[in-house]
Design a protein that fits this description.
Elements: H1 19-26, H2 28-35, H3 38-44, H4 50-73, H5 86-89, H6 92-103, H7 107-110, E1 112-114, H8 115-130, H9 135-146, H10 149-160, H11 180-193, H12 198-224, E2 240-242, E3 245-247, H13 251-257, E4 258-260
Antiparallel strand pairs: 1-4, 2-3
The protein binds protoporphyrin IX containing FE.
């Protein structure tokens, strides 16, 4: 069986007591799996398509809406305040711009939410209400990922989709971060300053593993959810093209895997 590959450096050193080191070590295997989903493999081969990217943007919008609303709501919580960087990191507005670019001014009516994305969003809402100390696991997984491999994904998206300008690519740009590497160092030191009981620390590490798994599920679903995007969501209809193959869109596939929400 082929071994899964990772672009991350091999960390062979001992894991210290810092949360940033522990979380990286705890999610190492999950990161390898996250890099090897169908969607991420398409990315790495430079084969990302516009329908795939559009579905991904819809999912990212839902995820960041929940994540950033919960971070905002808990911004003065002692376990959130040290890693609360809305000026530098917030992605929601940039995603709105990208969605408008690709879906048009009525994008809110056309956003689709695959079931895996809905589950991810629900988990974020739940911990925002009940266990805000776990939000650091999700903020780490998304924002440090966006500032790491995500920067390469932005370049691949531009090239694969033949985008001539930066239009539709705001998500990958962090105008408030002049050096991603330096910012990641700052972020890690802030994570390390959070005071957690041993039990809470364990729970954060477990939540980070779940956060990767939720992202993996979103990426795995994306591949199957590339149909009919240019017509918006369909409840039935003719065969929609998904590249070399076509998928028959039926009521059943939609109710099983795709949930539509009207975003206010
Ligand atoms: C094609 C897919 C991906 C590639 C090529 C990739 C690559 C990388 C690379 C090169 C780093 C920097 C490692 C370092 O500085 O030591 C990194 C870090 C990271 N990636 Fe990914 N990644 C991918 C997908 C993902 C996904 C899907 C997630 C989760 C949603 C993710 C989350 C992270 C996180 C949280 C870090 C920061 C690790 C740390 O420094 O603690 N990555 N990634």
């Amino acid at each position: 069986m082929e071994t899964m590959k990772s672009a991350r450096k091999n960390d062979t050193g001992d894991v210290g007591s810092d949360l940033s080191e522990q979380i990286k070590a705890a999610t190492k295997d999950n990161h390898v799996r996250a890099e090897n989903t169908q969607l991420m493999l398409s990315y790495q081969k430079g084969q990302i398509t516009l329908p795939q990217y559009k579905v991904l943007l819809c999912s990212l919008y839902e995820i960041y809406k929940a994540l950033e609303e919960e971070l905002d709501r808990n911004s003065s919580h002692p376990t959130v305040a040290p890693i609360y960087f809305p000026q530098e990191l917030a992605r929601l507005e940039s995603l709105e711009q990208d969605l408008e670019h690709f879906f048009g001014s009525d994008w809110r009516k056309r956003v689709i939410v695959p079931a895996a994305t809905h589950r991810y969003q629900q988990r974020l809402r739940q911990i925002g209400r009940e266990n805000p100390e776990l939000l650091v696991a999700h903020a780490y997984t998304r924002y440090l990922g966006d500032l790491s491999g995500g920067q390469v994904l932005g370049k691949i998206t531009q090239k694969s989709l033949g985008l001539s300008s930066k239009e539709g690519l705001s998500f990958f740009q962090f105008p408030g971060v002049s050096s991603p590497n330096r910012f990641k160092q700052l972020y890690r030191s802030r994570m390390n300053s959070i005071e957690l009981t041993e039990q809470q620390r364990e729970a954060v590490l477990e939540e980070a593993v779940s956060a990767f798994e939720l992202n993996i599920q979103v990426s795995e679903k994306e591949k199957r959810k590339v149909y009919g995007l240019d017509q918006g969501c369909q409840t039935s209809g003719p065969r929609a093209k998904t590249g070399p193959q076509s998928v028959k869109v039926t009521e059943k596939t939609l109710t099983a895997d795709c949930k539509y929400v009207k975003l206010s």
